[in-house]
Design goal:
mainly alpha; 15 helices; about 65% helix
């Protein structure tokens, strides 16, 4: 990798650190414990740094963008990892270059729900939708001993179905992954299952209703409740707000 890319990655890290907030560090560390360094940068400020980066990278070849995303991710901060994923989301020409090994490498070390969900919505879900990784690969994540890869398999279905994420609906692949994990009682996996099914409601509500009925006695209670609420009221928790 070129010296220029390494300099840009270091500059990005410095830009994020300028917005370090100790109180947010403390709260965030309790909200999703992680081995990554948490700077405590708010989402709006992360996006501000990302916008500046995207402007700076205008005209940069896509392969260099991929390499830069990897360098930023390797910086070891939670916020840097998020920027790396969202950089690839915004530079679709760079994301289109990713192969299976690249996606697995980018997702390695995700050890909290926030990093997993960002990775899924920005990287793994879209590349799966575009045929850059196979169903077999996602199924292997669903069967992993690692809870975060199992959640990755589920949340990767969200961009298949959410219009705001570019999805047009894919009930077959979504339910294939959901069936694999219906008996998983890990809370992080169960919440991922709930989200996967709730995202599918917008394009295939009857299919989700049949799924809930078929596996009523096997699904975690949280999934039955939240997805049932979504089907019946349009909200996960209708009593809130």
């Amino acid at each position: 990798m070129s010296l220029d890319l390494r300099i840009r990655a270091l500059a990005l890290d410095r830009a994020l650190r300028e917005f370090t907030d100790p109180e947010r560090q403390r709260v965030t560390s309790r909200y999703f414990p992680t081995s990554l360094e948490i700077l405590g940068v708010s989402a709006p400020k992360i996006r501000k740094v990302l916008r500046a980066l995207l402007k700076d990278l205008k005209g940069t070849p896509p392969q260099e963008v991929v390499e830069l995303a990897w360098l930023i991710r390797e910086g070891g901060t939670h916020e840097g990892r998020q920027v790396a994923f969202e950089l690839l989301e915004n530079r679709t020409d760079a994301r289109a270059l990713l192969k299976t090994r690249d996606v697995v490498r980018l997702g390695k070390g995700n050890d909290n729900w926030a990093s997993v969900d960002s990775f899924c919505c920005s990287v793994s879900g879209p590349v799966w939708r575009e045929g850059q990784i196979s169903d077999k690969q996602v199924l292997s994540w669903a069967r992993s001993r690692n809870r975060w890869w199992r959640r990755t398999a589920l949340v990767s279905t969200v961009p298949l179905n959410m219009k705001s994420r570019g999805g047009t609906g894919d009930p077959d692949r979504t339910l294939m992954i959901c069936r694999t994990l219906i008996r998983d009682r890990d809370p992080m996996v169960a919440k991922g299952l709930s989200w996967a099914l709730r995202a599918l409601v917008s394009v295939e509500p009857e299919g989700v209703r049949v799924f809930l009925t078929e596996f009523e006695n096997e699904l975690p209670a949280l999934v039955r409740r939240e997805v049932g609420n979504k089907l019946n009221t349009g909200k996960k928790n209708p009593g809130r707000g």
